[in-house]
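User: Continuing from earlier, I have the next pair ready.

Assistant: Great, send them over.

User: Here they are, in order.

Assistant: Folding the first of the pair now:
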Amino acid sequence: MFTRIYAQIAGDYVNLAATIIGLLAIVAGAAYILSNPRLFLLGLKNLRRNLLRTTLTSAAIGVLAFVITMIWTIIYFIDLIQVERSKDFKIIVTYKWSVPSQIPMTHADYLNPSSPKFLPELVDANGKKLYGPNDFMTWSFYGGTTDPNKVAPDTLVFFFVMHPEQIIPMMDDLGDLDPKLVKAMQENPQACLLGADKLKSLNKRVGDRFKLTSVNYKGIDLEFEIVGALPDGRYNASAIMRMDYFNNAFDLYKRNNNREHTLAHKRLNLIWIRVGDRDMFDKIGGIVEESPQFAPFLVKVETASSLIGSFLEAYRMIIWAMKWVLVPGMLLIMSLVMANAISITVRERRSEMAVMKVLGYSPNQVFLLILGEAIFVGAIAGLLAAGATYAFFNLKWGGIPFRIGFFPVFRIPEAALMWGLAIGTITAFVGSALPAWTARSVKVSEVFSKVA
């Protein structure tokens, strides 16, 4: 867990900035309490004395931290999946001239290290293959409905069609999948794995059987047995079925209809190859794109991050607006709300400030008192709101259930706790700095002359 948190902080400038701000707030707060314990206790009494205002201010900051944590989780995840990671650098091979990609199944044989048709160009001078079986995966997409008279979200199922042995080594976030589920799929041609949300929408349980009428391969209607559930999180609305069962269905269609299915030679969608680094990507990519074996159906190669980036292009302006308009705007508005609330408090407490100065408190101590009260409320409210958001969504749904394409859920990272702390600290500081300076500048003579 600590390794994951470190990676989140070190690999993202927002997480790093939020952590620095949060740590500065903690260190500064500890120094303030230790050097001015009486002033800190006085601030707590003042917050309790204006309990309603303190509660409303805390709630406002909490709501702000809650909303920004949800928004920034989606932005953070999308940014993350578009970053090329050297430890998991994947090539995606697709058809060059159309979207969605549709290529012959034979293309996979030329790139499968376990196939006798494996391209000799992908073997080095020492006879070693440039990648192994655990670095190769194929995908087809099969969709169907349990009710052909009602094609709706609660009847539709879309499958990742693949070989079961490729799930654990190649599927993102499924490296910890129970091997027993893979074995159960290998033992049953009709076996499938369904996500928790899909099981619920179909009203099915592990062990149940169901039949689908295909929506993207007309005439290829299949029957399935649910042998297990996919882990909560990214695949809650997804499903996985066997590639050989899918392929055999086309052979059966040919026997029954005395002709091949119109998509029989275009039923493979993606080929994935994991490589070690960019140099290996360029080497393998060049070989694949120039191979004459792919001449009838030309292919292109790109990184997983590039493909996802192309898919998310439709959301580009929305994501940009969320990142650079919505979030900063919310922070600015909350800072103004804080400034207004604390300004009212300062005006109400002008006599108190004057009395404090008469009793020997310096202008700087008055400034620190107001600033400390605001930052204490903001930091605590932001931290608690982010913590509650993290716990609620991650424990209940495995993340924020906001579907974009194949991403049905966005897990809130552990670094979000620092987001909340930083949000509360920044808004409180910006909103209270001017009112606190006004309190510092209160003149004793003016206050008591008005009283008199």
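And the other member of the pair:
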Amino acid sequence: MSCLTTMSTTVNCRATHEAKCLLNFLNQIMGRHILSGQHNFISTGSKYTDIIYNLTGKYPLVWGSDLSFCYQGNEAQRYHHCGPLNLSDPADSVCFTGLTPKKALQNMVETAIQKHRQGHIITLMWHACPPQSGDTCDGSSLWSMENRPSEEEWDELTTDSTELNNAWKRQVDEIVFYLNQLKQANVPVLWRPYHEMNGVWFWWGKKKGENGFKKLWMMMFHRFTEHHQLDNLLWVWNANAPRDTANDEAYAYEDFWPGYEYVDILAADVYREDWQRSHHDDLLKLANGKPIALGEVGSPPPVEMIAEQNQWTWYMPWGNLVLKGDGIERTKLLFADKRVLTREDATIDKEGIYQLVR
């Protein structure tokens, strides 16, 4: 059977059959349904996906996790929220797990393969340390705010064969080992690295224009697709919803756009109940026919929001935040809505083709 995409084709011309089928599925449901999702911290496996099942009797369809980083420093509590691989779950008192990067990543990959075989769609992100740090860093160098790389450092990073560029290659090549295991297991991945690049908090953020973030994105795209032939990835460009908040700004989507030839899906992160219609409409306009998604949200979206902003293809609450406030109530309402698809609403056959069962 064939599953040629109906609205767009994969930006990687060698994309696997399974990746093409997944993109086709997103195109098919866009405007009709939204996939439920849930982020899980690397140190605790599928904990939050399982919690949602225990609360609702249904599993979120999209299973998310993080390639993460190994925290090193004296203020672990400040960086506990994102779930560094060697720290305990953010819902618990902060302590060190003893997990090494290799062990934590291997556990996560094996869980992702298992979840895909159970019918979940996999999305992965990466809280990456600065390249010269490898996989271990102080949180303040990741959330660098005004200590982002200088223009000279950025130029060195994005110039082939410089010392910093070679450090970056070594860093990204380390995670290729794990992403390649997913490829070998025929698992397509919604890959959303270097997220929230239009914000002011990460070291890769606030780099506008042709010589800014675009160059970093293109570097990874070419390294992964051409050098390593990671053809199971769908490339999810995941910005933050724009906002004008002092010291927490997120700038216009288009200032950080790498180009249609490098992006399969566009996503936005929405926190603080900031469900502005413009966040949806502006991203939809930039997408020009490509699928859009809510890559991360704090609380699950209200049911009335997904009715109004009906082109989002999935939403994914961030770990333990799904249980905060009225998150549990919203989740139950969403899972009862016919527009929201859970794992029980879709099947994937041996050919990698997704089918709705209701």
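Worth noting for the second one:
The two ends are 21 Å apart (CA to CA). The chain is about 30% helix and 15% strand.
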